[in-house]
Each structure stands twice: as C-alpha cells, then as structure tokens.
Fold this protein.
Amino acid sequence: MLTKFETKSARVKGLSFHPKRPWVLVSLHSGIIQLWDYRMCTLVDKFDEHEGPVRAVCFHQQQPLFVSGGDDYKIKVWNYKLRRCLFTLLGHLDYIRTTEFHQEYPWILSASDDQTIRIWNWQSRSCVSILTGHNHYVMCARFHPSQDLIVSASLDLTVRVWDISGLRKKNVSPGMGGLVGGDDHHTRNPELFSTGDATVRHVLEGHDRGVNWAAFHPTLPLIISGSDDRQVKLWRMNESKAWEVDSCRGHYNNVSCVMFHPRQELILSNSEDKSIRVWDMAKRICLHTFRREHDRFWVLAAHPTLNLFAAGHDSGMIIFKLERERPAYAQHGNLLYYVKERFLRRLDLTKNKDVAVMQLRAGSRSPVYSMSFNPAEHAILLNTRTHNLDNSTYDLYQIPKDSDPQNPDTPDSKRSAGLTAVWVARNRFAVMDKSHQLVIKNMQNEVTKKVTTQPCDEIFYAGTGMLLLRDSDGVSLFDVQQKRVLGTARIAKCRYVVWSGNMTTVALLSKHTILICNRKLERLCSITETNRVKSGSWDDSGVFVYTTSNHIKYALTNGDHGIIRTLELPVYVTRVSGSSVYCLDRQATPRVLTIDPTEFRFKLALVQRKYDEVLQMVRGAKLVGQSIIAYLQKKGYPEVALHFVKDERTRFLLALECGNIDVALDAAKALDDKGCWEKLAEHALLHGNHPVVEYCYQQTKNYDKLSFLYLITGNLAKLRRMMKINEIRKDYEGWYTNALYLGDVPERIRVLKACGKTSLALLTATTHGFTQEAESLSAHVEGGVMYEPLPNAQLLQPPVPVYPSDTAWPLLTVAKGFFDSAVGSGKNAATASAMALSVDDAGDVAGDGWGDEDEEEGDLDVAMEGGEGEGGGWEVEDDLDLPPDLEGVSTAGAADGEDGYFVPPPRGHPPTQGWTQRSHLALDHVLAGAFESATRLLHDQVGVVNFEPYRSLFLSSFAHCRTSYPGAPGLPSLFSYPARNWRTATHKDHLPALGLKLSSLMDRLKEASQLTTAAKFTEAVDKLRGILLAIPLLVVDTKQEVSEAQNLLRVCKEYVVGISMELYRKGLGKATPEEQCRSLELAAYFTHCELQPGHQILTLRTAVNLAFKMKNYKMAMSFGRRLLNLGPRPEIAQNIRKVVQVCEKNPVDEISLQYDEHNPFTVCASSYVPIYRGKPEVQCPLCGASYLPEHRGITCTVCTVAQVGKDCVGLRISPLQFR
Amino acid sequence: MKLAFLRGTGSRTDTMANQDVDELFEVKNSFYIGNYQHCINEAQKLQPSTPEIRQERDIFLYRALIGQRKYGVVLSEIKPSSPVPLQALRLLARYLQSPDGRPTVVNELEAQLSGNVDLSNTALLVVAATIYCHEENYEGALRVLNQSDALECRALMVQTYLKMERPDAARKELKTLQEKDDDATLTQLAQAWTHIATGGEKLQDAYYIFQELMDKNASTPVLLNGQAVCFLGQAKYEEAEGALQEALDKDPNNPDTLINLMVLAHHTSKPPEVASRYLAQLRDDHKTHKFVEDIKIKEEEFNRLVKQYAA
C-alpha cells in the first residue's frame, strides 16, 4: 500500500471521491463535512450544518452537488460551488447510514436505522419510494451502476436485492432523458408499503451477525458483503436466484465496509480490527493486510476512474494506492524500452514504431520496479520489488536481436535476489542486496567483486564505473573501482536520478525537491515544488523538463524554472525533443505531448548569452508580457527587456537603466515630458554625451544650464546666441551672466544700462576704460555721483577655450553588445539580413550555373563509365569456418609456462605473410611489402619492365597497410592490419583492406576528361597514365568490375594515344607542305581514336578546319558530316553545315594523304601511322596499345612501363580470375 | 583466496594491502592511459603517506616525463644518489634520448640483469622489457617480465606476445591478468590490445573498452588512437576521422596519429599529397620509428628491383 495523503480529524464515517477533480469529501462523527484536495494536500472547504455524526456523503457525477445524511435524520443536498446547503429532505425517522446519487436519474438513495430504504427525487425534492422489508437497521444501500437494482445490508442478518424497474418506468417517461422528476401522484404521496415500485428480488441469508455493508460488482452479477460475523461473503445471482459463493475469513472483528476493486480481480475490506485487507476475488485468499496501530476502520471508497482508494478510521482518513503506477522504462538515444503487461516493448521515438521485443519470464506477481539498459551488450536489468523487500529480485535479460512482434520470445533470464541492479560498465553491473551490500557482477551473473561502501539504501546509475549511492539525507557519487566517494549532494530521500544525455548534469528528484548537480555532484541549483515531482528528462539544449502530479515544468541549471503546461493526469517523461514531450502514462501507453518551448528557450538563450536567438524570439513576438519584462529587469537584462516594451515611458526608463542614451532620447521625444528631459539630461551628462544634454536643456528651456553647458564645452558662438536670446527675453540676469562668461565688457554695460542700473554701468565703463561710454553714462547718473574704480582692480577674463568640443566627450570604447547594435539599428539588421539573403540567392543562381555545367560534364562521364555500378563491398565469398588457430601451440606454451623455467614461445608471423601466400594479386604483395614477388607478378601478368613509375604507388600502398596503436606507455606501438574481409577474417584468410578503388579511378578519369576538354593535354596525359598504372594494382570482387577495369584501361589507352599524337602534331612545324600534310594526317587519325563524343567533336572540328584550309574539301565534308552526326551545339552545327555546303560544291581533295577513312585502322603508338585491320601489329601487354611489328621489345610509350609485344598472362585483378 | 587479489591495480599492492584507497590510483591510471600531464599534476599534488608511496609516486612522475619525451629533466633530476628503482628510469631516459648511445645502455642493462635482480623492483623490470622491446629482443623482454607477478609486468607480456604476432599466447596471458584484477585499467587495456589483434567482431569490444576508459577518465591520444584503429579495422572511416582529429588536436606530433591519419587518407581517397605530408612529418620527427625505418628499407628494396628489371 502506498499512502498518498493522510488527514487527522474526528472519526470518519463517510467518504466520496469527486469524479473529476482531486477532491474527496469526508464526513465526520463530529458533524462536519470536509472537502479535501488530496493532490495539493489542502482543506478546500468545511460544511457544518448537521447536528451529530454525519455517516453518509456522496458527490453527484455531473452537477456541483453532494448529498449527506446524518444522525439528525436529515438528508441535505449541498452545492459546493455556492458553498451552502440547498435543501433538506425530511422523512427518515432514525439515523441515516448511507446516501447515494443515482448515476442517471435525479434520485438519491438513503438507508436508515428506521428499517427503510428511501428513494428521493432531488429535483422535485420529494420522496419517490420507500422500500420496506428489513426488520432491523439498514446499514447500507447501493444502486447497481447499470441495472435497475439496489442492494442493501441490514443488521437483520440479510442482504437484499431490490428490483426498481417498476419505479423507473413509472417515474421516467421515455424520451425525457431520464432527468425529469416523477409524476405528482408519487411525489406528493409516496405509497407506503407499496409493492409495485420496488420489489425484493433476492434475500441473501448466510451471515451469522448483522451485515454492515454490501456492494455490487461493477460488471459481473456478484455481490460482496461484510458483517459483524467478521466475514466477507461473495454472492452470485441470476434472474431467479442468488447464492453464496464463498466467505473470506481473516478479519478478527466486525467488517465495517467491503468493496470490489473497480478494475482488478480484487476485493477490499476494512474492519474494526484496525486493518484493511485485500483479497483475491478468484481464490478468495487474503493477499495483503495493512494495519494501523490504534484506529478502527469504518469506511472505504474507490475513485471511479483512478487507482485511488480512501479509508476512514477513528482519527482521520487515508488516501492510498495498492501499487505503484509508474511504468518501468529506460531510454537510450531514440529508443524507449518499457514494460507493459509482462512484455518488454521498444518504441522508436522518431519513427513512432512500437514493438514488443520480448515476453518477460513469468514467476513474479509484482510489477517491474525499474530497469537499466545496456546498449553495448543489448542487455537489460529488470528489478522487481515485492511487498516484502527482502524477496526482491532482478532479472538479467539478453534482448533478442530480432523477434516476432506478434509473438515475442521469452528469452531466458538470469534471476537473482537483490534490491536493485544497475549497469556500471559495458560488462559489469552492480547489485545491492537486501542487507544493502554492494557486489559487482559480470554478464554471467557471477560476482566479480564485493564492494564495501558507506551505508546506503539505494543505488542509481552514474555512468561508467560510477554509482550514485543514496542514504537518508543525500546522494554520493561513488567510484566503484577506486572505492572512493567523489562527491556528495544533500537531498532528502532522493527517489529518481535523471542524467543529461552527455552525462554532464544530473537531476536528483525527491518527493518535493529537484536538485540539479554537475558531473561531480556539485550543486547547481535546487527547486522546491508543492506538488509531487514525478519524472523528468533533459532536453537537447540542457533544459530539464519535468512533471509534477499536475504540471509539466522546466528548470534551467541556474535555477530558473516555470510551468510549461498543466496535466490532467500524471505522466512520466521519457524524452524531450523540440516541442515534443514523449511520455508514458500510468497505463504504460506512450504519449506525445506538445509544449511551447519558447519561454525556456528564451531564458536559456539569455543565460547562455545567445543574443541572436533571443532577438529572433523577441522579434517573433510570441512572449510579450509584463512578466517577461519584470523577469528581464530582475535578472539584469534591461537591454533585452527594451525590446519588448512598446510603452514609451517604460522604454525610457529601461533605456536609462541600461545606459542606452539614443533609445532614451527617442523615447523622450515621443513622451516630451519635462521630467523625462531632465532625467535624460542628467544621465546624458554622466555619459558626457553633451549634445544630448544640450538638446534636453533646449527642450526644457533651461537657459541657465544651457549657458553653462556652452561655457564649459567652449562653444562661444552658441553662448553668444544664448546671450542674444536672453536679451530678447529681457532676462537681465541671464544676459549679464552670459556677458560675464564671454568676458564681453560692452555687453555688460549694455545690460546694466538696459536694466536701469546706470551707476553700475558707469562704474563698469570707467573701470574698464570705456571713456566714451562713461561720459555718456555719467550724464544719466543721477546726483552725479562718480564711483572711483578700485585702484587695484584686475580684469578677470574667462579662459579661452583651447579646444571647443562640439561632439560628445569620447567614451570608452566598449565592445558593443549584441543588443546595443540591434537596438540602435534594427533596420540595418534587417537590411543586413536581407542582403545576406540576396547573397544566398546569388549563390543559388551561381550554383545552378555550375550545376548545369557539372551536368554536362556528368553526361560525358556517365557515357564514359559505361555500365559501372558500385561493387558489393568487403566480404570475400569464401566463408570458411576455420577452427580457432594454433590451439596446439598455445597449450605447448602453457606447459612451458607451468614449468619453473620459462621458455619464450617462438615468434609468430604477421598477417602480411599470409597475404602473399593466399593471393596472386599484385596489390596484396605490395601491401605485404613483398615487392620482389609483386614486381614478378606484374612482370608476368602485364609485362612491366620499367618499375620506376610505380615507385610512389608501391611505397604509399605499403605505407597504408597497417595502423598503429600505442600499448603500454614507453613501449613501441603495436601494428594492426585492417582486413578487407574483417567481419569474417581469421588469421588464416586475412586479406588486407584496400584503399585504391575502381570508383576513385573513375573519378580520376573524370578529372582527366575535364583536363582534355580544357585542352590541358600534358596534364591530362599524366593523369591518364596514373590511372593506367594503378589499374594492375586494383583488387575487385566481380566479373563486371573486372571488365569495367579493362574497359577503363582501353579508354585511357585511346586517350593517351590520341592526345600524345595531338601533342606531337602541335610540336610539328607548319613551314613545309610535308609538315602541313603530316599535320592533317595526324588530325585525321585523331578523329579515329575512340574518344567521348564531346571530345570527338573537338577532334573533328580541328580536322574540318585543317582540311578546309588545305582545300581538301572532300575530307572536310566527310569530317563535317561525321561531326554533325554527333549532335554538336546548335551554333557549331550551323557553322559546320555551312562548311559542308561549301565543300559539297567542290568535293575534291587537293592533297592526297595516307588516310583511308573507310578502312578501319588503329594507330601505331610509336610512329603514328595507321595499321589497317588485318595488317601485322604488336600490342602492349598492359594497355593494349598497337605498334608496328618493328617496335616489338621497346617499352610502351603509352603506359611507359610494359614491354611491347611481350607474351603475358594478362591483367589479374580479382581472385575470380584464378578460379 | 580470490579476494586477496581483487584489490591490486599496480605492482606494489602488498605494501598497501591494508589501506582502503590507493593513493596513487589517479597517478597510475592517468599514466597508463597516456594522460601524462595530468599524471604529473596529480603526482605533484599528492601528499604521500609513506616513503614507499613517495618513491612509487616518483617512479610514475618520471615515467610520465619520459612519456612526454622530457628526457633531459629526468636525467638531471635523477642523481646517482637517488633510490635504486629511479636509476632504472634514468637508464631508460638515456636509451630513448639518443639512438647512438643505445648499445652502451643495453650493455649496462645486461650487466644489471645478469646479477641478482630484485624482483620487487618492478621499475627495473619494466624498463628492461621496454628497452628489449625497442631492440626487438622480445624473448629477452619476456624472460625479464616473466619473473614478476606484478600486474604491469603481465600486461607488458601481453603486449610483447602481440609484438611477436602470438595473439594466442597473449590471450592466455590476458586470462591470468583478468584473474588478478579484471577491472584494472591495465587489464582493460591489455584486453583491448588483444581484441584488436584478434580483429573481426572483437574490434567492437575493443572500441567499447576505449570508450569506457574515456568516459571514466579523459580522452587521450593513446585511447583515441586505439579507437581509431578499431574504426579503421571496421572500415568506419568517418568515425575514425573524428577520433584522429581529436587526437591530432591533443598532440599534433604523435606518430601513431600520423600513421593512422595516413592510412585514413588512403582509404578515403584523399589526394596523395595529404598522405605524403603525414609521412614527411613522420620522417622529420620520428626518424627511428619502426614504421619509418620499414619504409626506408622498402625504398631500397624497390631501387634494387628497378635496376634488376632495367638490366
């Protein structure tokens, strides 16, 4: 039993669950009805109108109503929304034991000590029927959930089943939906002792003492009853009769309440013997007993849909579950493994493919508690906890690789006792046994070592070689190998541990706390929840998304957290990806919930200072709101908050806060408020941004400050203008001050004069020696008093500004934050991005252009490649299962080892040696470093005599045959020899991996082809020769590839011959007619090399031009026609057509050549003369180039390595050729 | 009986058998996986509780310095007055420092070994085996190592067998190692080496071992190269590239990394210049490396053959 909630109160006599909300009604012996929220653990309301104990209480299924009945004979119907009693139903003459709403009809059923059962219509607020027959207190009466039946239990030792179909027919007119009250006749005058409405169908006799409770099975025709004879009886009924099936004995005091489990084959009963018992309905044996120390149990209730129960006892009530509802699951990458109904299932989260991979071994009643998955070995540990923890076991399963999802296998498991088993390494797991000792076991479930740890009561996974050990007040990170604690985090009763994908952070979940730590278990933050924390998962960006019993929430590692959405029912998060939360519900059904990740992404971006993302989200404007602004201000991101604010005043204040004067200025302009200007002036002055200060002063017409500002910034011109303004405004004081600032004496005299201080003006004039002024003034001075200027008076002039600064004072160059620039130039940013976009576009366009070209080339090459298809791969066909090697030798060695005298075993042979023995392919010999035999093979197979060109091929191939890995420090590294047949290779058939592939030679041919097109003939020939040389060092697997290689060889040869000829032609002079003639001949031969159409067009064009120039019109015509047949580009075609037309008029040849276009020929690769078919010729054994017989024995000019005319086996590049 | 062995991770477990925690664990561990700098840092941080541990710490400290090719430091710090085991390290530093002085060092070593060898002086045995292996005198190395029961000596024997191309013998030796302490880093490493030598599906197991060691400790060129070799053996070139790039970042001059990168370049059809650049780097910095020497020999052989056929 898992207690979820407990209350303390007076004796609890009645209980009712709300069908939807997490509420339970509790009626007390003290007369109070309590409404509890069992999820939040709070008392929602109290209803106190009954006098004396309230024994009965029941929620309505749809309406915000409940009904109660008490020892004051009253049935009260309440509205919990209005929080008051709506009306009272009077009629019973004694205590009321139970009350119940009907599921459908507006009926209330009540049972009373007055020996009657009454049915009331709560809409008409009247009694519909009175059921009499019991001859003692009726302790309980219940409606059948779907049929027109009532079951009642009485202290008269009977249980009665009543048929109320008559009542229903009478009261509920068809078509009225059943919700309309009965007719007047019945509502006004319930017929006492009427037999028509409700008849007794069965009387169940069997209990020896009074029966306290009876209840229907929700679906089956079964009744359960509990009695003071301490028995629980199960009854079965049909249309005609009812009989006792069995009794459950075990309670040793009065059974107060009994019920069927709504969904399982279980019976729950409670009793005054202070226990709740759970019985197996089929076997009628007691499965569990839950005892309390002092409290007698009185009542039980089951939640209509959830697996929750409530039980009332002497001092309160408990809400409990019979078993954990958390499915066991483990997640790895995109795969979720979970247990559902004795199957291990695998859900591919990306493909949403859910299959059962295996059936679990039978044997344990208890569900799987937790699991630990090992991706390397594809193995899984399933922990099963029994009610008695000491009997807990774990199973080690090897998950079958492929299994029929319809009927999965039941693989054998290795089962042992132990509380928890988790993986600590690829092939090791740790088991905590019932005495809380830790052992490490291997894949065979054998103990490899015992580990002594500090006292702990649970272990969790913590990566390779690590474990988290839990004790009552914390969790420690324990290194299993070193047996050392590396870190400790304090958290009370940690229940679950969730590691982030890269194992850098961990969330420790306890009932109400989440503690987030780093890899070393150093605390990053902790979060306290009021609701129970259920599960969590790390999102790819490092946000922890977790569920409580009613919310999905997020937490950042800095401690910020918040609600993402609410939940109807608890779910268990398995993975979070983007806006999808993958979870399992309590039925272990995978679900995907969609969340809006904007808020936490935004906060995360802020924390990580990824301002571009922040800005993007801000511009997306999904999260404007006061709360976000407050959050930003509080967390010290006023510059970000600035973005959200549309309200100018807030914007202004935020701008000041983050010192963004420009934005503040804009806002101030919009506001145009004196206070703002002053504030801005103040801030701008602090920044030294005096143009803004000036602007502010101008706006507020603060002339004094403005003047002083001009003075200190040395802006004398403006200062003078200020003076003029003051003069116009007749602000004498300001005028005079400005004159003083400027050191302008005449002006001062003017001011004094203007404001009527003539004597002062006179004094000023005399002091400064303005005699003319003084004279004119003295005339005005009344009384003719002349003040003598002080004899030692000095003229003080304001200092002359050295450097008038009209721009703002230089600021420290602070690297502009992302937002400063973004704020300053929102539009610029936009244009910039637009520009980026346009560049992209340009790129696309260019790309297309390139692509087109590529396609052209591609066409050419595809044609060139012929029917090339990528070969099968590495596997070599011979799948010989050879026995493990060298067993005999090793035993011999062992014998040596056992002796006192140690004899080192003889050295073995590296795999390279085997290569030369097994293979007759040149490359294998080269790779093995057996150059001697390699050269001999090449000599015999393709007649190579000049090996110098092979130098780099040989040496680089040899260098690539082995990899190197360091062993123990200081020792020379070990070599490993990658095999091409590595999957199946043993020491006996090991063959080296291949670097040189036919496909890469094909690629090189493409390059050569491009070079040819670009007329880079020398480079092209080099490239083609490289390919030619590499071909004998190929190894291929199929006949097709062999012929492709031979084809490739031929193509290369044709090109090399042709291009060499062209090079030779270009080297010829053009001076003499003979040379010109030879040139045309060579051009003509060139057109007969088997080139790609594209290239042939080029050769033909050259030939047409040459022939035409030399007035060999007939030849030119014939070349031109051949060219047109090849389908050249339209403009070329047009051109050629013209040539052909011209030639057709005069189809004669000026010069005769050694060229017969109609007689097939090959060209001698040495002398470049045609060898017509049937004439003697010799060939190069490697490339197949043709030569006149007199060239036998020379080194081939095409491939440069082989001896012309040598008699050879031929190209050997595949093991197939040796079969 | 078995439990008595379970605790040991190094050679000197007997002195610490009663202690719960191996003070030198971190030092040794980081040394074995080639995390020399961390080994040195840890060794310098450590407050040894007994003189024996101090001495052992010094051994690992100097070995780590040798691992970093800082032979001069070792030679200047180990004085003739220093404890006997450290003298062996001096010998090793001298051997590795100059190829010319090697015959003398080998002679000195032979002289030391011909006398009564203190079998508890694991350092000397390890040094002797190391030098013999460099001299390709594997039989000599095995004779030296076989005398000791220390885990490290046994691990070196595994490697020596592999050098001799005797994976069967290596596997057998590995079994004794696993019986001693299956979880020790050296055992794990030795197992990985053997797996690589066996090839086939065992390559994946070797990969997991390296990955586990990286998870537990840190990634080092040693472990990364091990992994890369597994990948190359399985024709997983992309993964190999990742591992090798990381190794290259950590130590741009590691010969193993260079060799493996060269092989990788070949198999991924990179232009031949890439591979030849790595080879040139190898020739520059690791003249005496077996790999470079092999290539030199092959070049000469090739020259001979060219002449032979031209004649």
Notes: Chain A touches chain B through 82 residues (CB under 8 Å). The longest strand of chain A covers residues 242-249.
